[in-house]
Amino acid sequence: MTAPALNILAAAQRVLVERGFSGLTLRAIAQESGENSAMVQYYFGGKEGLVRAMIDSVFRDDQDEAARAMATATGEARLPRFVSGLRRISSSRSYRVFFDILPYALRNPGLRGRMAHAYDHYRRLKRDWLRGEHPVSRAEKDVLEGVAELMTAVVDGLAIQEAIDATFDARRAYAILEHMLQRSLPELLKRGSVGPAGGEEDPAHRESAAGGREPGRSRRVRSRGSVPGRSFGHRR
C-alpha cells in the first residue's frame, strides 16, 4: 500500500474512533488526511472499500504485533507471552475501530464474509502459537482449535468491558486465564479430546444409534508421543 493510501487509512481510523460510523464520510476522511476526496475514492473506491481495508488493517496490525512477541518466546515462556499478547490486543486502539465497524459489517454480506475470514485466520494463528514447534496429532490439533476459539471470545469480551468502562482493569482476568491454561491445557492435550458440554449428546453415540461406530469410539486417535503442553510449565 502506498504512503498516501496508508495516510488515508490511518485518518479513517481516527475519524471512526472520534465520530463513529455515521461520521465516517469521504469528506471527513479527506479533511483528516489532508488528501482530497477523489484520492480517497481512487485508492479505496468509496466507503465500503475503505471499511474492508480497515478490517484487514485491524487484524493484521494486531497479528503482527503478537507474532513479533511470540517469535522470541520458547519453552515455559511461551504461554505467559501468549496471554500478555492477548491483553495488549484487547486494550489496543484498533479494537475500538473494530467495535465501530462490527454492527455495520453484520448487516453487509460482503463485509461480514471479510470479517469471518479475518477471524478464521486469527484463530489459526492462536492455535499455532499455542502449539509451538511441536508436531501434534489430529486430536491435539482439535483441542488447540477449541482453545483458540475460546481465547478469541475472551479477548473480545474483555475488550468490550475495557471500551465501555474506563475503570475496568483486565489484568486480574488475564492472570486467572494464564493460570487456568497452565493447569488445564496439558491435561486436555493428553486426553486428546473433549466431551460434549452441558449434557449434550456425543455425536459418536448418535452415529452408533444410527448403525455407525461403537459407542465411545472416537474418530480421533490420541498421539502416544510427546505432549506439547508440557512446555508450558504445568505443575501437578
What does this structure look like?
With 236 residues, the chain is mostly helical. Helix content is 69%, strand content 0%. It has helices spanning 3-19, 26-33, 37-44, 47-71, 78-90, 93-106, 109-131, 138-164, 171-191, 203-209.
Tell me the helix content: 55-70%
Got a strand count? 0
The quaternary state of the protein chains shown equals single chain
- State the distance separating the first and last CA atoms: 50 Å
- Uncertain regions spanning at least 5 consecutive residues: 213-236
Secondary structure tally, helices = 10
Query: What sort of overall outline do the alpha carbons produce when their principal axes are compared?
Result: elongated
Q: What CATH architecture of the largest domain do you see?
A: Orthogonal Bundle
Mean pLDDT: 79
Largest sheet: none
Q: Please give the radius of gyration in angstroms.
A: 21 Å
Order of helices and strands: HHHHHHHHHH
Tally of individual domains: 2
* Name of the level-1 CATH class of the largest domain: Mainly Alpha
**Beta content:** under 5%
Structural class: mainly alpha
